Amino acid sequence: MKLFNNWPSKTNPESINKIEEILKKSPSKNISEANSDHLQQMTSKKVDNILTELGLLHNEANERIIKALLKYQLSLNKEEIINIKQLLNNHQTDSTEALKAIIFFKKTNLKLNHSSIKLLIDFLTKKPEIAADLKELIKSSPDKIANKLTEFILQPNQEDRYFTAEEIKKQIMKLGLNFENNLLTKEAKQLNSLKRFLFDLKNNNSQTANKIIDNVIYNLTNQKLIMHQNERSGTNFLYLQLPLQFPNQEFITAHLNIFHQQKKSKPEERDNNRFCLALNLETKKLGLINIKLDFYNEQLNIYINTSSDKTLKLIKSQIQNLKTALTSLGYDIKNVTLAAIDTEDIQKDIESEVLQTNPFNFDNQLHNINFTI
Description:
Layout: E1 2-3, H1 13-22, H2 36-54, H3 60-71, H4 78-88, H5 95-107, H6 114-126, H7 130-139, H8 143-150, H9 165-173, H10 194-203, H11 210-226, E2 228-230, E3 235-245, E4 251-263, E5 272-283, E6 287-296, E7 299-306, H12 309-328, E8 332-340, H13 351-355, E9 369-370
Parallel strand pairs: 7-8
Antiparallel strand pairs: 1-9, 2-3, 3-4, 4-5, 5-6, 6-7
């Protein structure tokens, strides 16, 4: 899904003046009316001019940094670029992923250091799947521990049983992503979370392989690292991996992205609320499925893509039931898009989501986005 917005509000005034001078000779002075392909070509042509204006060397490293700063609406100045180059010097073997990590931390105003950069680089590179790690952990654990671990997996009792929103919410809370933050609270000892249980296993010299335990803890830590909120814009972004087990014993990881924004209006106006939920999962029976629900106040847009023609036909046969149910809840369904996708065309990693902290045009900023679930 591609969106095109206006000039980035986060760029400082000095940089804006420089960029405006650079773009005066552009074929289209009204940037917001350009299409995404033209914007990409124009940005590429003007990078050399920007380097000259900022007094920086014309080299590949500086060009990459400038393109990333422009694309993700960050301040464009000489000091910022030099700072990023210094950070990248410590991650020369994986500079591409390092730049993604740095941009993410700067965009979300999260703590930026070499340790956090390395943590996110590893996550982007290894692309861990929590279901696969839990399956291995259960397989190698004594029965008592294995039974306890299954409590943290979302699983239906029957094939025709639906997951309720309350069940999913409880399962998310049981992951224990905020475990470290709650250690000093009185409620910490009562918390029944996966992360706490894993730490207990390690501390008690469990028979279970510590390396597998570390993998799951590492995954949960990174999920927490990626989550963030922006108080100024009233936005929250969450990335979650939910372990699922179906009646046929198939373990899968459901990748869930949640983006919420609430803009406070004037007393005489109602608040503008936007909530987007994007879910990615793949099963042997249904294939790859991407589901996106985009809520704006009481209006709703639905996007469902699948790699299986058979699954697509099944969804089409049932979509009216979904529309009826949502309408009965008071939602005005503006659009329903159902489409087939090629598995090779789908990025099943979270690189786009990590960097796209404002993916649905909330702040009306310049951003050419390809939101891949």
